[in-house]
Design brief:
With 264 residues, this protein is an all-alpha fold. The protein is built from 13 helices and three strands. The radius of gyration is 29 Å and the shape is elongated. 17% of the residues are buried.
């Protein structure tokens, strides 16, 4: 006589490294219904059930939803290979993003090791209300990871002395005051005064951080208009006006077009 080996829910939980509660949930949803019940009504799992559980856990490790797994296991027409290819692509993209974040962290540590140490008071004296949002810094590093200009800008920033930052911020404050005055006076965004301000900003970036051709300047200005965290690096929130970011963006675009660098 052939006896079928079965396993209790507690044994399967131990084998698979998942909770009894999870197995109960799989049963209720029909994802994994045990083949047998004991005379007392307890769940009993066969080797075939364990093989199905192994498949479920494989797909869960790849972050498939339970509904997706059920469709793959239950529908003979489901193309599991296509599903796996799509998940492979997604996971590869996630790995690449995580690797870039690792590089950002490593760069931050390098800056911490080699940069000029500033006390909180010194930071306020140099930067005033201008603060660098860490979440924006991280996203920008991922977004611009393939940009030589971004890498050079970070390297330049790390190399600046306290005196460099003081001069840089003084120049930025003087430019900001003139930009605000032009905006408040109703100067047109594509007028001569606005275009001069845009060109001065581009020269400022080139001098202190990295060469900034007009096409790159457009991307920078687009970021200012799209992301308040980026714009706060240029104009502190207490000095911002409604429509100012878009005004500056228009001025940068117009200046780039005038210099033949409007194509991206």
């Amino acid at each position: 006589m052939t006896y079928t080996v079965t396993y209790t829910v507690g044994q399967v939980s131990g084998f698979a490294g998942i909770t009894v509660r999870t197995l109960h949930h799989y049963d209720r949803t029909g994802l994994l219904t045990p083949s047998e019940r004991s005379p007392a009504g307890y769940r009993l799992y066969s080797d075939a059930d364990l093989a199905r559980l192994q498949q479920i856990l494989f797909y869960r490790e790849l972050e498939f939803s339970l509904d997706e797994i059920q469709a793959i296991l239950e529908d003979p027409q489901a193309n599991a290979l296509d599903q796996l290819r799509a998940r492979h692509k997604l996971l590869s993209e996630q790995i690449a993003k995580l690797q870039r974040l690792v590089e950002v962290a490593e760069h931050a540590m390098e800056v911490q090791d080699t940069g000029v140490p500033l006390t909180p008071r010194e930071r306020f004296d140099v930067f005033g209300e201008i603060t660098f949002d860490l979440s924006y810094a991280t996203e920008a590093a991922v977004k611009w990871h393939d940009s030589d200009g971004h890498r050079q800008a970070l390297a330049s920033a790390a190399a600046h002395t306290k005196e460099d930052w003081q001069q840089l911020m003084a120049e930025a404050a003087e430019w900001r005051a003139r930009a605000l005055a032009a905006f408040d006076a109703g100067e047109p965004a594509d007028g001569e005064r606005a275009l001069e301000l845009a060109e001065e900003h581009r020269a400022h970036l080139t001098h202190w951080f990295t060469p900034c051709p007009p096409a790159m300047h457009i991307r920078v200005a687009d970021d200012f208009a799209a992301d308040p965290r980026a714009f706060a690096l240029l104009i502190p929130p207490s000095e911002q006006r409604q429509g100012l970011a878009e005004w500056l963006r228009t001025a940068v675009h117009a200046n780039a077009a005038r210099r033949g660098g409007g194509e991206r």
